[in-house]
Amino acid sequence: MKSKNTRVPVRKGLSSNAINVSSFRKQAITSYIEKNTVIQFCAFYNKIGEVIIARRHLPSVRWDIIHTHIFNNMNDAHNGLSIIVDGNKTLHICVPVHNKQLRYYQMDENLNLSKKSMIGSLEDQATYPEFYRQKSGNLLFLYRNGSAGSGNVVLNQYDTENQRWIRLHDNVIDGENQCSPYWQACVDHKDRLHISWCWRRTSDVQTNFDLCYIVSCDASCRQFMNDKQKILPLPITKSSEGITICPIPENSMLINQTSMTVNTKDHPYIISIYRQNKTVQYHLHFLENGFWHHRNLHLRHSDFSLSGRGTKKLPCARPQILADDQYIYLLLRDQERNNWISLARIEGIQTQITNLYSINMGQYEPLYDSQLWSDCHVLHLFVQKCTYVEDHTLKRRKTDRIYILEVEGL
C-alpha cells in the first residue's frame, strides 16, 4: 500500500501534555461541505491556555486564525476542545472542564463568537463532550454528567432550522452508581446513532470491563435497541437485555474510549485494545449477518500494565477506525512502531501497514476530520507531537507546531 501526504502547518500549540491530541476530542478538526466548497476548522490551545480557532477554504493552505480570548485549565488532558459545523455553517464549540460546568459557544460565518446556553440542566459535572452531525444538518451531543464510577450519558440534539437545543435523554446509559459507561459512537447513513462502551467500576482504569452496544431505532434517537432489534427501555443498565457483545474481565488492560464506525451497509465496526494471551492487542469487533465477530489483529507483540486515575501514559494510542466500500482502516501510534503515525488497511484476514508520518510523536493519539472522510472519503489528520505529564502536574508550558496531514493514495 502506497500513500502520499502533504503536511500543512497551522500554528504552535501547547504540547507539554496531551490536551490538544487526546482521543477524548470529538472533534479536533471538522469541515463543512457544500457542493464544491469545503470549509475546514480546527481548534486547539496555545501556550497560555487560550482557545484558538483556525479556518481555511480547501484546497488553500492559508488559515484565518481567531484568538477567542477564552481560556481553560491546561493541567488536565481531559479538557480537550470539541467542535462541529451545523447545516447553517455555524461552528459549535465546547470548552470542557473535567467534571465541571459545561461551557459552550457558537461562531457564525463572519467569525463572530458568542457564549450560549445549551439546555441548562445536568451540566454541572460535564466531561467527554462529543458532537456528531446528521445529514439533516442537525447535531447530536453526548457527554457524561457525573464522575468516574457514577456518571451517566446525556444526549442532546440541535435543531438547526429553529436554532435551539433539545434534551433527548437525561440518561441514555446508567451505571446505577455502581459503574460508569466509557463510550465511543458514530452516526450511520440513516442518521441513527450507534454507541458502544465498556463499564468502569471506579476511577482506576484497571476496573474497565465488557464491551457493549446499542443503536437508535431511527434518526430521532428517541428509542434504542440491541443488535437483535429489540427495543430497550431507557436508561440502559448492566441488566439490559442483549447489550454485552464481548465479556471482558477486569484487569485486562481494556482501554476506554477508542472508536467505532460503520461500513456502507451500516454494519458497525469497533476497535478496542485489551490483553489476550499475555499481550495487549488491537481487537476488531464487527456485526455481520446478525452476529458479532471478533478478530485479534496480532499487530502488537508486547504487554503493558496500567492502573490508577487520570490520563495514563499509553505505549500505544487509542486507534481510530474508518471504513470505505472495500477496506477497514486503523490510524495508529505505537511505540513498537517508533511512535510514528501508521495506517493499517484490513481486507478480510489480510492487514497491510504503511507509515504516514515517520517522526516520533510522543503521546499523540490520532485525530482526523470525520466529516471530510464521511462526505468525500478524504483523509486529513490533526497532528502534533506531545509529551506525557500526569494530570495536574504541568509546570512548564512548551509548544510544538500543529499540522494537518493530508493523506492521498489509500
Task: Describe the protein's architecture and organization.
Strands 14, 15, 16, 17, 18 and 19 form a 6-stranded antiparallel sheet that branches. The chain has one helix at residues 370-376, and strands at residues 4-14, 29-34, 37-45, 50-57, 64-71, 82-85, 91-94, 104-107, 113-115, 126-133, 139-145, 152-159, 164-169, 180-187, 193-200, 208-216, 224-225, 231-232, 244-246, 259-262, 268-276, 279-288, 291-296, 320-323, 328-333, 341-347, 350-357, 367-368, 379-383, 399-408. It has 1 helix and 30 strands. It has one domain: Methylamine Dehydrogenase, Chain H. A hairpin with a 5-residue loop joins β20 and β21 (268-276). The chain is mainly β. The longest helix has 7 residues, at 370-376. It starts with a strand and ends with a strand.
